[in-house]
Amino acid sequence: MRSPDQVLTAVQMREAEEALVARGVSVDELMQRAGKGAADWIWRVAMGRPVTVLCGPGNNGGDGYVIARELRDRGLTVRVFAPMEPATDAARAARAAWQGEISATAHGGILVDCLFGSGLSRPLSAEHAALLQSLAAGHDFVVAVDLPSGVATDDGALLGPVVPCDLTLALGAWKPAHFMMPALGLMGERRCVDIGIEPVGGAATVFPRPRLPVPARDAHKYSRGLVGVVGGTMPGAALLAAEAAMRGGAGYVKLLSDSAPPAAPAALVVDDAPLGDALKDRRWSALLIGPGLGRDGHARKRLAEVLERGVPTVVDADALHLLDDDLLEGVAGQRLLLTPHEGELSVLCQTFGIDGTGKVDRARALAELTGTTVLAKGPDIVLAAQDGRLAFFEPGPSWLATAGTGDVLAGLAASRLATGSDPFDAAGEAVWLHAEATRVAGPAMTAGDLSQAISIAYARFL
C-alpha cells in the first residue's frame, strides 16, 4: 500500500482519485483495482459460501459488479442485487462485464454491501433501508465495501438506520468514519484496500505503533526526565497518575501534594512544600495537573502556578474545567497537552466559544484557538495539534471504560513528555501504551491493575 496510514475526507479522496486520473489512470482501472482488492478479502471470509452483492447506482455499485465477477471466476456462487440502474459510465461498464443475472432473492452466505460508499450526505430511502436490512437478516456475514451504507464519511455519524457489519473494507485510504463512533461500533473488523492512492498533503493519519527508546548507557534519573504530578483535594486520582508516570519511561516522578496521600508507594517521592517553591526546581521535564485537583479558587491558583512555570504540561480532568483565556495568556501553548473526555471537551468548547458538534472539528478548533495539542479521549480518540496535524487511533479494549483509567493515561502522557517527546508524539505514545497495558491487565481490570501492567506493555514497544 502506498500510504496506508493516511485518513482522507470525502473531498480529499475524490481529489486523490482525480489526481490519478489526470496522470492517466482511468476510472475503469481504479474500479478494477478496488473490486479485485475487495474480492481478495471477501474470498477469504467466504470459505466457499455463496455471496450476494448488493450494487447501488454509483461507482461503489460498480465496484460491486467487479467483486461479483471476480468471485464468480474463482468458483463461488454469486448473486447480484441491483435495485437501481448504474448511473455512471464506469458502473455501466462494470455491469456489462458482469454478464450475469440480477437476482430477486438470496440468503445464506455472505452479503456484500455496495449500495452506497463514501460521500453519502442523506439517509437511505425507506425502500433501500428495508432491502438492506432484509438481505442482512438472511445472511450469516455482512461485508461493507468502503463504508456501511448510511454512514457519514467525515465524522462517523449515522444518517439513518445502518446495518451492523462483520467486515468493512476501506477503498484506497481510510476515512475518518472508520475510526469514529457511532459508525465504528457497527463496522466489525476493518481492512484497507490499496488502489494506488498517493500521499495527500495535510491529510490526517493513523498514529503508528511507536518504537520506544531504551535509556542510554550513561543515563541517570534526571536525564530520563523528572515529572511532577500536582495533587489536590482527591489524592487517589493524582496517585494513580503518578504511579503510571513512574512506569511510562521517565526516570523520576514526584507527587506535589499539600499532604501525603494514603499508601503512596515507596518509590514515589511526595513533596509537600508549597507548590510555588517546589516548582522552582530547574530540573522539571514535565508536569501534570488535573487529576483530583478540585475546582475551587485554591485549585485555580495551583493551575496558574503550573502554567506560569513554562514547563511542558499535561492539563487533565478538573484543570480542564478551570482553563480559560486568562490562564493561557502569555503561556507557551504549544508546550501544553489537553486531554479531555467528551464532557470536558464540551466544557472547553463552551469556554473558548467554539461551535460545532463533530469531535474532529471541535478538537481541531480547540487546538488552533488555544495553541495547544488536544487529545480528545473516549471510545474513539482524536489527536489534534495547533500546527494542523491530526491523527486517529485503532480502538482500545472496551475494558478501558473503568474509573481511573483516564488518570493513568494522563500519567503516561506526562511521562512521555518528560522523556523528550513533543506533546503530539507523547500523547500518541501514551494511547498505545494505555491500550497495550489493558490487554496485559486482562478483562474486568481496575485502574490499579492497569498501572501495574504498564511495565510489561512498555517492553512490547522496545
CATH homology superfamily of the largest domain: Ribokinase
N-to-C CA distance = 25 Å
CATH fold call of the largest domain: UDP-N-acetylmuramoyl-L-alanine:D-glutamate ligase
Shape: elongated
Q: Give the spatial strand order of the biggest sheet.
A: 1-8-17-16-15-14-13-12-9-10-11
Unreliable residue stretches: none
The total beta strand count reads 17
| CATH architectural group of the largest domain | 3-Layer(aba) Sandwich
Q: Rg from C-alpha positions?
A: 25 Å
| Total domain count | 2
Task: Please describe what this structure looks like.
The protein is an alpha/beta fold. The chain has two domains: 6-206, 3-Layer(aba) Sandwich (Rossmann fold); 226-459, UDP-N-acetylmuramoyl-L-alanine:D-glutamate ligase, CATH 3.40.1190. Helices cover 38% and strands 15% of the residues. The chain has 16 helices and 17 strands. α5 links the parallel β4 (108-114) and β5 (139-145). The longest helix has 20 residues, at 27-46. The protein is elongated and about 80 Å long. The model has no long low-confidence stretch (mean pLDDT 94).
